[in-house]
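User: Predict the complex with nicotinamide-adenine-dinucleotide.
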Amino acid sequence: MQNRKQLYFSHKQTPELAKVVEPLKERAEKEGFTIVSNYRQADIIASIGGDNAFLQAIQKTEFKEDSLYVGISLDNLGFYTDFHINDTDHLMSSIANDEVEVRRYHTLEVTLDNESPFYCLNECSLRSNVIKTFVIDVYIDDTYFETFRGDGMIVSTPSGSTGYNKSVRGAIVDPRIPSMQVSEIASINNNDYRTLGTSFILSEDRQLKLKIVQDGNDHPIIGTDNEALSIRHAHELRIRLADKNIKVLKLKNNSFWDSIQRKFL
Ligand code: NAD
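Assistant: Here is the predicted structure with nicotinamide-adenine-dinucleotide placed in the model:
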């Protein structure tokens, strides 16, 4: 941390937010940091806002592996944000007193047909864009597993398992377990159509292939964290745990399970 001095701020470009962030920038400069306007030069990237701002910061700065990310919230603390904008003293003293640690979060690598891969920190979701059942052939390591019919599927990272995945009754996975979880969104299960009907978790060396059955559904919505990809004529998604890990500055006394308890119980 001591050697990291090039600091980039990621936030919505509104006059109100610029006003809120200005004192933080001044404070950081007094502490010896240099504020950079190009994230490629940064070794620390501070996201200002909630979890959604954090997810956008990661996507916009291209999952920069040599940077340390820090989430600074404007209101309640989230899953990726351990610090509050009105409590910069706490942030600075935590760093000075060695009360922080770097946590590594797994990401997903998603390849659509023959395009370049893209990455997700929470999840990749695949949904129909028409009111019609969506049919997906699911393969694990190139072996046919099942045919899904319903609204769509979610593939989440462990840290994303508390997001969209949880809303469809997926399990919460400890981010220390390198894995990805596959969950259904409203599958049809009857005597004609059958899927596993529960979420399943794949280990880090598995590859998942989702083949879209082109039955009027060749324009699906592909969600990557909080962005939708506008891709026409998608045929096949290949998803695996990426080699890229994201490094996030967290308070030592705020473990993943502390956040779960604080947010959900
Ligand atoms: P948003 O800003 O409306 O955020 C939705 C909520 O999800 C917020 O309370 C946020 O704190 C929380 N969240 C984000 N990442 C989380 C995580 N890893 N664990 C626990 N909570 C998390 O929505 P957005 O910015 O458009 O999307 C961000 C995320 O919201 C997506 O990546 C997805 O996980 C989630 N989402 C959930 C649903 C759902 O539950 N039905 C639908 C769409 C998106």
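The mean pLDDT is 92.
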